Amino acid sequence: MEENHYKRTTVTAALPYANGGVHIGHLAGVYVPADIYVRYLRLKGQDVIFICGSDEHGVPITIRARKEGITPQDVVDRYHGIIKKSFKDFGISFDIYSRTTSDTHHKLASDFFKKLYDDGKLTEKVSKQYYDEEAGQFLADRYITGECPHCHNPKAYGDQCEKCGSDLDPTELINPQSAISGSKPVLKETKNWYLPLNEYQQWLKEWILDGHKEWRPNVYGQCKSWLDLDLQPRAMTRDLNWGIPVPVEGGDGKVLYVWFDAPIGYISNTKELLPDSWEKWWKDPDTRLVHFIGKDNIVFHCIVFPTMLKAHGGYILPENVPANEFLNLENDKISTSRNWAVWLHEYLEEMPGKQDVMRYVLTANAPETKDNNFTWKDFQDRNNNELVAVYGNFVNRALQLTKKYWGGVVPECGELTEADRATLDEFKDVKKRVEDYLDIFKFREAQKEAMNLARIGNRYITECEPWKVWKTDPKRVETILYISLQLVANLAIAFEPFLPFSSARLRKMIGVDKLEWENLGRTDLLHAGHQLAEPELLFEKIEDETINYQLNKLEETKKANEAAAYVAEPVKAPVTFEDFEKLDIRVGHIKNCEKVKKANKLLKFTIDDGSGTDRTIVSGIAKFYEPEDLIGKDVLFIANFPPRKLMGIESQGMILSAENFDGSLSVTSILRNVKPGSKVC
């Protein structure tokens, strides 16, 4: 259904979880496409609000608080501030960015639950859940760890294995243990309230499968997979002490399930923004509701939340849920727990003024139909070869030539040639092409159409060669630059939803405060005689040094993750003491050390072994040490290995080294000075 069938549009973006910052996966999956869409609707003059806020309840926040020795409120206060500022600095144009710990939200979520309870829409059920006897509390899924039954990852959570991605039930874990006390939990009965999804299954099938075939294939397909199975009642309460208390008798010590609480945040944030008129944005059938989310939240926004709204009554349902797939980073899954991410607040500090570069790259690589990959090399290439070499280059050529020949004044348009008409014809339908894609949430294709304008402009200037024509026909150059400047002005409009910072700078350069979306495609946006401002570079080249810095950061993260995940290899089969005694391990003093020619891995050692005759040993540790760093050191070596030749050098023993988790070697030494030749026993 087209948006013009409605009087207004409510756009929501998934509430980011306030136990960490926002990374590029979040931006590509949710916030950049949502912002593009909202800016587009605003430019068209439509009535729209853009709602978001921090999701501040749930187990991961309590786990972080426990680890850091602070309160859950301390955790969410810290990250709410970081996230809110990052979004603002990046240009995500929310009408409100609030939080689920607000008083408005607590009351609305509590009242919502109470109405469902009073209307008999919830079912009460006693089930067995894991209980930590030492801590004296029931354990939420994330408080239970153990071995994954599928990939045997020893650190799987009770709800998911982050290594293989399997959804889990806590009872499936092998050797489960409490993340609080480390003890083995026991199953104990507890009472909770459930939303009977099974009672709404037929309605959901009709509403989604019959009524929303236009939804993205990934969204429609995932919904169909769920609905082809038998839906089960889902618990809407949890045995926790951090969250919104369950507001009914028997609810002591329990809080609302975070996935019941969080989506209501869209409504409560709207109420906080518009206390007197919020209901028309959520209850008026003339309002269109659109959720922007990642694919991991599809079931909650398309099945659970709509069922909650239906059960409550009076609320509109989402008209579309354009969920994206996942974005990987340098061919690896983005992971908050492994710090494998490009964090927005760090990017803004390290690359100031480059918000639009990241927006452009993430949109160009948008995971709209399948998982996609972000690499810093591609980031650099798209900036240098597209934003700089195509868009920025065309703008700079048009403005600089106008400055050179007419002092920055828009010239008159003379008689059009065939080349002029062909160029004008090529871009006349740009507005329709961009809109056609934006209306169906194909932001990647829409941005391509905007960039195509710059390609048309570059080709036009190159083919017309005004710098050559100027010598013989200045009047012809006036027409060439007039048409070029109209293309420049059109670019400022076409890129406004995608690259708002650059469009603002470009409007300043062409001396225009505002350009209306409805005028996109017109060829009279800048009138003859209009004075342009001083031209500046719209984008700047990104050098290898900048990219290498980011790659080195990721490499350090990878090393830290490998170190944290290191588990020693199993001990080999037992040997007898007599076998050990056969090895003659001695202390040797390194008198000299040098690299072996034509051998990148080998070092040649001259060792004082206490015998009075120097010993030569060749060792493959050249990648990890410089020769001068080892001279004068005491090391351990095996003295009774038979000699063998390496690169023509007879090696008389083996220097002992320890192999680290990353494959690096560390030469073994001793804590106190002893005489060369001393035996190890």
From TrEMBL:
It is found in: Cytoplasm. It holds the Pfam family Anticodon_3. PROSITE patterns: AA_TRNA_LIGASE_I, TRBD. It is an enzyme of class 6 (ligase). GO terms for molecular function: methionine-tRNA ligase activity. Zn(2+) binds at residues 148, 151, 161, 164. It comes from the Bacteria. CDD domains: Anticodon_Ia_Met (cd07957), MetRS_core (cd00814), tRNA_bind_EcMetRS_like (cd02800). It catalyses: tRNA(Met) + L-methionine + ATP = L-methionyl-tRNA(Met) + AMP + diphosphate. Keywords: Aminoacyl-tRNA synthetase, ATP-binding, Cytoplasm, Ligase, Metal-binding, Nucleotide-binding, Protein biosynthesis, RNA-binding, tRNA-binding, Zinc. ATP binds at residue 336. Its cofactor is Zn(2+). A motif ('KMSKS' region) lies at residues 333-337. A motif ('HIGH' region) lies at residues 16-26. InterPro entries: aa-tRNA-synth_I_CS, Anticodon_Met, Met-tRNA-synth_bsu_C, Met-tRNA_ligase_1, Met-tRNA_synth, Methionyl/Leucyl_tRNA_Synth, MetRS_core, MetRS_Zn. Homodimer. Is required not only for elongation of protein synthesis but also for the initiation of all mRNA translation through initiator tRNA(fMet) aminoacylation. Belongs to the class-I aminoacyl-tRNA synthetase family. MetG type 1 subfamily. This is Methionine--tRNA ligase. The lineage of its organism: Bacteria, Pseudomonadati, Bacteroidota, Bacteroidia, Bacteroidales. The gene is metG.
